[in-house]
Design goal:
8-stranded antiparallel beta sheet; mainly beta; about 45% strand; elongated; 44 strands
Length: about 650
C-alpha cells in the first residue's frame, strides 16, 4: 500500500487545478506552493502543498529532480501521485470515488487477488483490482460468518472453541440448591424461577435451544427441548426453565437427601457463539446469585474447589430451613469416570451409600446431562457450631479428576458472610459459581473491591493453591502481605479496598460479598465470584446487566495505557459517573479500577489492551456478581 505519511490530515489538489486554479502565477498560491523552492528545507511541493519528503526524494542540490524516473507512480494514502518533470504531482484521490490506491495498480476497487467481506459475503478481487466476484455467501451456512481479517467464511463455533474463552456455542447449566424457606417471612427461594440469560454478540440473528434429558442416569439420553429462542444481533433473551432439582428432591421442593445423582442438567446450544449466564433465581429476592457459564470447549478434567462453608444442617429458628454447602459435577461425555476427594464431610445419598468423612475418595460414572451433587453434612450428633469451626462443612480444597471434560459448580444454599468486626450478621444469601479448571489458573491478579455499600465495607477473599509450597504476595498489610500455601490449602483475607496478588505457582482467587448487616447500608447480601488472572484478560467484552435488580455496576480493571470504550463512550473521560481507584505499578504497568453504574441490558466494552471486567448488582436483600468474561487458555501447566 501507499506510504504511511500520506494519510489523515493532508488535502490533495488534482493536477488540473494546479494548471487552471486561481493563483498568483508569479509566486506560490495563497495557501500553498508552486515548486520545492516555496517550501521549507526537508519538504517538497505536492499538489499545491508543502509536505515532508520521502527519503531519497529531497534534492541534495538545486536542479536535482525531486523524483525519478519520469512517470513513476506512488500511493500516498488513497492519493495517486506521479513523477512529472522531476516533480511529484497529485494525480487522483481514489477515495473520492470510493476506491483505494494500491501500489503498482493505481486506483482500484479492491486489493488485487485478495478476499474481503461485503457484509456476510466473501468476495474475491480480480487480478487487476477493477472488479470482484462472489466467492461464498456465508449466511447460507448455519454458524458461518465472514471474518473481516481474512475475507473468508469461517465456522464461528469452531473458531470460538480454538480461542478458549467464555464465548461459545454449547453450555451446561444446573438448577443448584437454594434456600428452602418454610414460613412467610422467609419464602422458598428453591422453588422460584430459575433462568438463563443469553446475549448474542454477532451482527446477525442466531437460534438458541435448551435441552433436557428425561431418562434416568446411566441410560441413553431421551432429549426434550425445554426452550427454543431466536436472538437478534446484540440482543439478550431471558429463558425461564422448568425446575430440575439435583439434590434428589421432587421438582420444586427441597426435601431430598442432598447428595444425589440425577440426569438434570440443561444443555444450551446455539447456532453461533453466545455469552450465557444462569440466575438462581432470576427475580430479586432475599437469596439469589448468578454464574457466568463456561462453554463445553473450555471445560477440563482437573479441578480444585473454591467455595464457602455451609452450616451443615437445618436451622430450627427459621423453620428448619436448609443452609448446606454443595459441590456439583456435570458430565458431558458418555462413560466419564469422576473421582472426588472432598475436603468436607459428605452426607449419604445416591452413589454415596453412607455419611462419608472428608478425605475419603468418592467415585461415580457420569454421562451427558448427569449431575453428581454432593452436600456437606456434619457428623451425626455433632453440634453445628463445632462442625463449622472445624471446617467440616467447607468443600474448599476438594480435588476433582475425570476421564473426560466435566463442568463443576460450588456454593452454599444460603449463608451469611461476616468479616471481622461485623456486629450484625444479617442476612444469608445463596452462593454459586462455575469453577475454572486448574489449567486456566494464573499467578497475577488484581482483586477489585466490590462497589461500595457503606462506611464499613470489607470484602472477603479466598486464595486457593494447587501446587505444594506456593508463595503468595499481596499489597495488603502484614500478616497478609506474604504467606505460603500447601497443596489444596487456602487463605481467607479481608479488604476495604482493591489490592494486588502475585504467586509463584497457579492460584484461584474468589470474592465473597459481605452480608448487608455488616456494611452499614441495608442493601445487597453475600455473593460469590471468581476473578480471572491478568493473563486471561480480554480486549472485547459483550456482557449483560439484568433488569431485575435496583443497582448495577461494572468494575473495569485496566492499565493506564489502555484506551477503553463502554458502549462507544470513552472511559472514564466520557462517563463521569465512574469512580477511580489507583493501584500503582504492578506486573509491568500502572493500574486502576474504574467502577461505573450501568443501565439494564447488553453492553460492550472494547479496549486497546487486555483488561478485566466484573459485574455486580444489589437489591434490598440480595445481590449477584460475576465476571464480565474471561479467557480460559491453558496457562497453568505445572
Amino acid at each position: 500500500m501507499g506510504e504511511a505519511y500520506g494519510s489523515g490530515n493532508r488535502r490533495w489538489v488534482p493536477f488540473l487545478l494546479l494548471l487552471f486554479g486561481g493563483c498568483d502565477c508569479d509566486g506560490p498560491a495563497d495557501d500553498g506552493c508552486r515548486s520545492r523552492a516555496d517550501c521549507p528545507a526537508g519538504q517538497v511541493c505536492e499538489g499545491g502543498r508543502c509536505v515532508v519528503a520521502d527519503a531519497g526524494d529531497v534534492p541534495g542540490e538545486d536542479g536535482i529532480p525531486e523524483c525519478s524516473p519520469e512517470g513513476r507512480q506512488q500511493c500516498v494514502g488513497d492519493v495517486l501521485r506521479e513523477c512529472r518533470g522531476g516533480v511529484w504531482t497529485g494525480m487522483e484521490n481514489c477515495g473520492d470515488t470510493g476506491r483505494t490506491c494500491f501500489e503498482g495498480f493505481g486506483c482500484v476497487e479492491c486489493i488485487p487477488d485478495r478476499h474481503y467481506c461485503d457484509g456476510q459475503r466473501s468476495m474475491r478481487c480480480a487480478a487487476d483490482g477493477r472488479s470482484a466476484a462472489l466467492e461464498q455467501d456465508c449466511a447460507e451456512t448455519e454458524g458461518s460468518a465472514c471474518d473481516a481479517t481474512i475475507g473468508l467464511c469461517v465456522n464461528l463455533c469452531a473458531e470460538a472453541a480454538g480461542r478458549r474463552s467464555n464465548v461459545g456455542c454449547e453450555y451446561w447449566a444446573v438448577d443448584l440448591d437454594n434456600w428452602w424457606g418454610r414460613d412467610a417471612a422467609n419464602p422458598d427461594a428453591s422453588a422460584e424461577q430459575f433462568a438463563l440469560v443469553v446475549t448474542n454478540p454477532q451482527p446477525f440473528p442466531i437460534d438458541v435451544t435448551v435441552e433436557i434429558n428425561t431418562a434416568p442416569p446411566g441410560e441413553a439420553p431421551v432429549l426434550e427441548a425445554a426452550a427454543v429462542h431466536s436472538v437478534g444481533p446484540l440482543e439478550l433473551v431471558r429463558i425461564d426453565l422448568p425446575p430440575r432439582e439435583v439434590d434428589g428432591s421432587v421438582e420444586g421442593l427441597n426435601e431430598g437427601a442432598g447428595t444425589a445423582l440425577t440426569a438434570h442438567a440443561y444443555r444450551v446450544r446455539s447456532t453461533a457463539p453466545i455469552v450465557a449466564y444462569q440466575f438462581n433465581p432470576v427475580y430479586q429476592m432475599h437469596t439469589n446469585d448468578a454464574s457466568v457459564l463456561l462453554p463445553t470447549h473450555a471445560l477440563d478434567t482437573e479441578y480444585r474447589v473454591l467455595g464457602y462453608p455451609g452450616i451443615g444442617g437445618t436451622l430450627a429458628l427459621l423453620g428448619n430451613s436448609s443452609n448446606y454447602g454443595y459441590l456439583a459435577v456435570v458430565g458431558t461425555e458418555p462413560g466419564t469416570t469422576v473421582t472426588i476427594v472432598p475436603a468436607a464431610d459428605v452426607g449419604a445419598g445416591g452413589p454415596v451409600a453412607e455419611w462419608t468423612p472428608a478425605g475419603t475418595p468418592i467415585e461415580a460414572v457420569l454421562g451427558p446431562f448427569d449431575v453428581l451433587n454432593l452436600e456437606a453434612k456434619c457428623p451425626p450428633e455433632m453440634p453445628y457450631l463445632q462442625c463449622m469451626t472445624e471446617g467440616r462443612t467447607d468443600f474448599t480444597g476438594s480435588r476433582i479428576t475425570a476421564s473426560a471434560p466435566v463442568a463443576v459448580f460450588a456454593g452454599v444454599e444460603c449463608i451469611t458472610v461476616n468479616p471481622p468486626g461485623c456486629s450484625d450478621g444479617c442476612c444469608c444469601d445463596h452462593l454459586e459459581e462455575q469453577l475454572f479448571p486448574v489449567r486456566a489458573w494464573g499467578t497475577e491478579f488484581i482483586a477489585a473491591h466490590s462497589p461500595h455499600r457503606g462506611s464499613y465495607d470489607l470484602d472477603v477473599w479466598r486464595i486457593l493453591a494447587d501446587h505444594p509450597e506456593t508463595a503468595v504476595r499481596t499489597s495488603l498489610p502484614p500478616p497478609d502481605d506474604t504467606f505460603v500455601l500447601g497443596e489444596g490449602e487456602f487463605r481467607e483475607l479481608y479488604a476495604a479496598a482493591s489490592f494486588t496478588v502475585q504467586a509463584d505457582h497457579g492460584i484461584l482467587v474468589g470474592q465473597f460479598l459481605a452480608s448487608q448487616g455488616c456494611v452499614g447500608e441495608r442493601t445487597g447480601d453475600p455473593s460469590f465470584t471468581l476473578f480471572p488472572p491478568l493473563r486471561q484478560f480480554r480486549t472485547l467484552y459483550t456482557f449483560l446487566v439484568p433488569d431485575t435488580f435496583d443497582r448495577d455496576y461494572v468494575s473495569l480493571v485496566r492499565p493506564l495505557s489502555a484506551a477503553a470504550t463502554l458502549d462507544g463512550a470513552a472511559v472514564p473521560d466520557d462517563v463521569p459517573s465512574c469512580t477511580r481507584e489507583s493501584l500503582g505499578s504492578f506486573a509491568g504497568a500502572d493500574w486502576e479500577v474504574l467502577t461505573c453504574p450501568l443501565a439494564d441490558g447488553v453492553h460492550e466494552l472494547v479496549s486497546t489492551e487486555p483488561v478485566g471486567l466484573m459485574v455486580v448488582g444489589y437489591g434490598p436483600a440480595g445481590s449477584y456478581a460475576y465476571t464480565g468474561g474471561t479467557d480460559l487458555a491453558q496457562i497453568n501447566l505445572e
